[in-house]
Amino acid sequence: MRFAVARQEGLTEDLVEQITDQWADSGLPERHKRALILADAYLNETGAPSAAQQAELRAEFSEPEIVEIGVGLALVHGLAKVLIVLGLEPEQMEVTVIPSPGS
Prior knowledge:
single chain; 103 residues; mainly alpha; two-stranded parallel ribbon; 4% strand
């Protein structure tokens, strides 16, 4: 799933393809890498990002932006789990671009 506003702001499939376990060594912009610090902490259940990582996040994102990233992670992850539990997870999914909320 891709939000239309993300596409408008420069999200390309080339960037998405760089989001692998080795994202830290990828050509992703630093802002994207910093957002992935939070995503990894959430999805890998490793606990809160380290103090150094939290400083990196706060240097790049405002508190509301950090909250928005966290809520987005929780929402999408939760919905994915519902699909799995209901046995509705497709083997392959097409990329879907949806309008961003409020746009």
